[in-house]
Amino acid sequence: MSLLARPALASPAAKVMQRLNALLADRHVASSLHKRYPEYPRNAHELTIPTSVAPARAVVYVPDRPEGAPLPPVHVNFHGGGFVLPPVELDDPLCRFLAAEAGAVVVNVDYVVAPQHPFPAPPYQAYEVVEWVAGHGAEHGWDGSLLTVGGQSAGGALAAAVARQALEKGGPSIALQILHYPPLDLVTGARDKRSVIAKPLLRPWMADIFDTSYVPDPTLRSDPLVSPAHPCDTADLTGIAPAFVITPEHDLLRAEGSRYAERLRGFRALYDHFDVPGADHGYDQNDAETAREVYGLMAQHMRRAVYPD
Predict the structure, then answer these.
(1) Which pLDDT tens digit goes with each residue over 237-280?
(2) CB 187 within 8 A of CB 227
(3) Domains identified in the chain and CATH numbers
(4) Does the annotation count 251 as an active-site position?
(5) In the annotation, is 281 catalytic?
(6) Catalytic residue (choose from 11, 153, 195, 213)
(7) Cα angle, residue 223 at apex, residues 217 and 226 outer, rounded to 5°
(8) Are 271 and 264 in contact (CB under 8 A)?
C-alpha cells in the first residue's frame, strides 16, 4: 500500500493541494475561462442553498428567454476535483454553453469537499441540493419538474449518486443524468486500472490522495453511492434516471464508465454512451473545440430529455 493511501498522510496532502489550488484559482484564471466561447455571455448570479450538511453556494446561469415564455428547465452541475478540490469556476464555459444551447437554468454547485467533509457528506448534500432545486423553481425562475443533473469527474460520480438516491427515495424526478468521465469504482485501486496510453493524466498517487481523503475507510468504498460500477453492487436499478455517459478514450477511468453504461443499458436506463476519441481525463479544460462538440451533445440530450417528442 502506498504511503499516500494512509489517511494520516492523505488528509494533509489533500489540504496542501487545496491551498495550491486556491493560489492558482485567482482572478486571472477566472477571467480567461470567462472569455472562452465569447458568443455565450455570462448572465449569472449567486445563491445559497440550505442543506443539513452545510449551506451550499451555487452560481446560477440564466438563459435568454422572451418575456412571458414558460419557465425554463433546470440543470444542476457538480464540478470535478477528486472530491477534494473546489474549482467551481472551471465549469463556467460549460455552464454558459448549456444555458444558451439547452435553454436551461444551470445551477453550478460549490459542494463540500474532503478531507474536511468525507463520504457520505458530499453525495448527501448533493441530493439535498437537487431536492431543493426541484421544489423551489417557481420562486427562482426555473421549472423544477424539468430537471437534469450532471457533473465532471468527481462531480459525475456525485450526479450518479444523486440519481441513485432519487431512485431509492422516490424522487425528485430526474429526466437525465450526465456522467462526464466519472470515477465509479473506488473498490478497485488505481494501480489495477489500465489506460490505452502509457502515461494518462490520472496517476496512482493522485487517486491515493483523492480516494483516501474522500472515503478513509476502505470497507465503505463498496457503497453504491461510491462504486456503482463495481460488481459488488447488484441492486435492481429499474426506474433510475436515464444516463448520458461520456468516457474519454485515454482516461484511466474509461473502463468503469463503460461498465456502468452497460449496466444501465440492462435496465433500459442508458440514454447514450459517447467515447471521446484521442481524449484523456479532463480534456475539456484545454481542448475547447472537442469540448464544444461534447457540450453540444449534452445540450442536445438535455433538450430531448425534458421535452420528449
Answers:
(1) 999 999 999 999 999 999 999 999 999 999 999 999 999 999 99
(2) yes
(3) 3-306 (3.40.50.1820)
(4) yes
(5) yes
(6) 153
(7) 90
(8) no
